């Protein structure tokens, strides 16, 4: 199986990720922050080490302002619902994932107003359009760092500056960029940074987190046992406990720490270059296949390592199924949980086939995929019967 | 290290738990329910298998009515905040964990009324007191199945009958009983059952779930990508997706499935008998040590395998530290994230030392702990300097 579905979850992981998880489960095992005994303290240290690794990666001064949860979706829910109040206005883009649009949809029902700034046919947004959408009652800008459909990189630094100038909070969804692109919460004026642990940070599923800038108070999404300040009736004020009720995914976070260490050791630049090379190779190969239409920027440097395309007028699900069943290639066909993005691209009906690359993919895999796609187009290979192939 | 902190998280896990996690991370890896490719389908099957195992364990007809999250705290937040509306009244006990009391505390600020039925000095509740607390505006009863401080087993079946008779919803916190005691959601009339994966179900941390009875609609705690119905602007109606936004902890859930299989293969009765024997042995041993006061029922059969006690007038934290540092015993001293329970017992100031047993503990470990405690009492062993020992 050749795996080109890294934008959903990266696979394989560096070997040290499993080793760290195994160590944690076998040798540590205990619940961090809940007792004074040696195992609990060791679990605490593991989790704190992961916080420190991430803080170094994102230039976060205080690691305790990173709070962990199940995934980036939880982090975005905490950021969006924890921040916005009825009567407030927020600006976002037309390329967002459902993890942003759905919480906003719920808040719209509770009196929050939302402006979705339209992106162009490559998924790109203009900073002046974002500026023009700001109103006197605007409190925040929420934006993905890169589209999960087209990979289009948003001008996050410029929008961060704009947010700072206008006194707005800036929430960034780094689902496709954490571990891929440089993220500096200070330089980019990011107030709330949501990231998954299991994508380009190479951690296991079940990990994700939110950076909460100093001075920013959110309504917690969940309350419960925090392992400290147990005597107060509500949530404690102190971070990370305030937003981390219940037992953390210690084992997964140990794995995530190993994943981030791997990235910092290999070097973000080297990883980025490799993924960009694969993206460029794929984009150039697709250009040569008549009948394939690529969406998003043509320049690989303007993308996260994600490429979506349509094959003639064929439903994306059929192509996904053929790639899986005939050629043993795992990719993702459908709406990619981002119907707004597909509406922006005009592909809401046909949907798209998405390839997404990781540091562990190789150029020969991309070559093989290109040959398969050429064959599908030239021979008009039909989809196996009874299969839908469409995920989300 | 002898580990008696299983009520926080069980350790060690059966070997097949790690094996299942390793298999999932190495061989499957993909995101379930998000694509049609073979790996994603395999991930989906793993998660579904865990749902089926749990459904069989709890006598749940439709496995899709089990929704997974980070932990039992998340499940309780979804149950409590998803169900209760301002102006409604709810009945609970005075022995609840902060994972119940804190969400209720927040809801009280939003117009939900809460009656905490007082338990006696053993942590026991009388069904007639619960009945007497029901008012015309009561919509639900929320109760732990067994106290995490005293292990006291609540009369869940009787309270379930009462709830059914009165037309109330019944929410059960099975944090200390899932995998320990028989739970039958049909026979016990449980509408919402919250359980952790990482305690007596032997899964890894980062797993937990909620059973949602048929016909019951909750407001989701989180919205986002659900891998299906991506075109609808809000959350889909269908379970489990409605309450499972974002990427699940596939690897952890594979481990949880192996944990539940282990329990079903060994047999709940055998596990229960072993844990009860250890509890009885410990209770009887403690009785013989002058100066130790045990809280909760004297009869091991009336407890989950949890025993909390005070040593003379000494702060619990000191005893916890001595046990850890001098004797290499991991237990838990403090408030156990359950201040209400400690108020009920009259131990809010002194706090308690808690031992909690698992199937993997042995009688000789209990004997050793009893000898250590005797020595601490007889020699009045002081706590090491500079240590607090108190967790939560």
From TrEMBL, chains A, B:
Residues 2-368 form the Aminotransferase class V domain. SUPFAM superfamilies: PLP-dependent transferases. Its EC number is 2.8.1.7. GO terms for biological process: cysteine metabolic process. Keywords: Aminotransferase, Pyridoxal phosphate, Transferase. The keyword Glycoprotein does not apply. The keyword ATP-binding does not apply. Transmembrane segments: none annotated. GO terms for molecular function: cysteine desulfurase activity; pyridoxal phosphate binding; transaminase activity. Its cofactor is pyridoxal 5'-phosphate. It is an enzyme of class 2 (transferase). It catalyses: (sulfur carrier)-H + L-cysteine = (sulfur carrier)-SH + L-alanine. CDD domains: SufS_like (cd06453). It comes from the Bacteria. Belongs to the class-V pyridoxal-phosphate-dependent aminotransferase family. Csd subfamily. This is cysteine desulfurase. It comes from Desulfofundulus salinus.
């Amino acid at each position: 199986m050749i795996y080109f579905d890294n934008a959903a979850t990266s696979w394989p992981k560096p070997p040290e990720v499993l080793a760290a998880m195994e160590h944690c489960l076998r040798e540590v095992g205990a619940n961090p922050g809940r007792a004074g005994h040696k195992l609990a303290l060791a679990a605490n240290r593991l989790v704190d080490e992961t916080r420190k690794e991430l803080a170094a990666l994102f230039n976060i001064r205080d690691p305790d302002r990173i709070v962990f949860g199940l995934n980036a979706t939880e982090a975005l829910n905490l950021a969006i619902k924890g921040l916005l109040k009825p009567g407030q206005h927020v600006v976002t883009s037309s390329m967002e994932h459902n993890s942003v649009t759905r919480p906003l949809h719920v808040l719209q029902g509770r009196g929050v107003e939302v402006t979705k700034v339209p992106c162009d046919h490559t998924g790109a947004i203009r900073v002046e359009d974002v500026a023009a959408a700001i109103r006197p009652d605007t409190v925040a800008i929420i934006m993905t760092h890169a589209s999960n459909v087209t990979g289009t990189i948003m001008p996050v630094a410029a929008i961060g500056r704009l947010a700072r100038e206008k006194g707005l909070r800036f929430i960034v969804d780094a689902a496709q960029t954490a571990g891929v692109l440089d993220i500096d919460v200070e330089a980019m004026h990011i107030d709330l940074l949501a990231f998954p642990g299991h994508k380009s940070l190479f951690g296991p599923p079940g990990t994700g987190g939110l950076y909460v800038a100093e001075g920013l108070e959110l309504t917690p999404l969940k309350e419960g046992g925090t392992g400290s300040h147990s005597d107060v009736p509500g949530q404690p004020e102190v971070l990370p406990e305030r937003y981390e009720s219940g037992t953390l995914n210690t084992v997964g976070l140990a794995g995530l720490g190993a994943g981030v260490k791997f990235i910092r050791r290999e070097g973000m630049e080297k990883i980025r270059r490799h993924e960009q090379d694969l993206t460029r190779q794929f984009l150039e190969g697709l250009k040569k296949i008549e009948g394939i239409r690529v969406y998003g920027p043509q320049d690989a440097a303007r993308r996260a390592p994600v490429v979506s395309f349509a094959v003639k007028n064929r439903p994306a699900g059929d192509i996904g199924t053929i790639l899986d069943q005939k050629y043993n290639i795992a990719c993702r066909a459908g709406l990619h949980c981002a119907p707004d993005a597909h509406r922006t691209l005009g592909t809401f009906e046909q949907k798209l086939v998405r390839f997404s690359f990781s540091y562990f993919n190789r150029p020969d895999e991309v070559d093989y995929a290109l040959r398969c796609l050429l064959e599908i187009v030239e021979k008009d290979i039909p989809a196996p019967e009874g299969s839908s192939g469409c995920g989300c």
